[in-house]
Amino acid sequence: MLIDSLRRQHRNMETLLDVLEREQHVFDRGGRPDYEVIHAIISYFEVYPTACHHPQEDLILARLAVRDPVAAEAVGDLASEHRNGVVRLRRVARAVEDVLSGGAITRSGVNAILRHFINSERRHIAIEERVFFPAALKALRQEDWVQIACAISEGKDPLVSKAAEDGFNTVRRHILQLEAEAEAIRA
Question: CA 59, 48, 134: angle at the middle one, nearest 5?
Fold first, then answer.
């Protein structure tokens, strides 16, 4: 089911947020985080949610608005939340680049930007898990899910979609491997 897939995607994103948080803690303690890991996470969040995850949620929310406008209203403006996430991620990318280029950004400023991104993404995921997904599961009918599935696959080659998802899984695994190597070096 689509909601199960979206929940797995959330777990994958939360895993990367955990990695980013570990790197942020290294930075916060005055150490040198693994910037390759941080850049890989930034790249993942720049592409994956916008290309794969959020469009699926948008389709579900549109159907929810038809079936249960009150529940859809309770979910809030996901599109705006998703755009805000992009803005927060850009701030993270700029802060990291400022650090690497010797810019004037303070350590506390970088930490605040990283914490804000991590905490905001976790809050966003939690709202979707606690409010949005249960509302969709309750209100949407089988025909709604069929329409959503058709809209998702419309105009897409399923092999390309599968390849893209596999590619993102490979990137995520690579990030986790880089983090494990960085942790081993720091230990």
Answer: 40
